[in-house]
Write a structure and sequence with these properties.
single chain; alpha+beta; three-stranded mixed beta sheet; three-stranded antiparallel beta sheet; 2 helices; 6 strands; 26% strand; globular; binds zinc ion
Amino acid sequence: MSADNGIYILHTKDGYRVTHAQAIENIEWQPDESGFNLRTLYNYFRDSVCYKSKKEASDRAVELYEEEISGPCGIVEYGISFIEATHIEFPSEQPSCCKNPLRTSTDGQVQCYNCGEYLDE
Ligand SMILES: [Zn+2]
């Protein structure tokens, strides 16, 4: 089984955010015009401090890397990567749903397959 995890540094207009995540490709699943799925991006990075410098963000990434390596999982498959998104602002609150919701219906309720949001139809 693959860990499919990495430490990611997201660079947006306002600074840098750092997270440990699995399946990072989800941030580009069903993107809007920004090239990202902003709701997923928000969910992945919202718990991070916003660092103003690349140096601070990199230091935090190394710290997280070492925590993961010495943790129960013991592996960081993709190491540390930068995600350049300097054309966007990090959302200030959770976007209500993806710009292109993928409707799926279960038990009579319509839900977005991408983000899990329930949609009123
Ligand atoms: Zn959605």
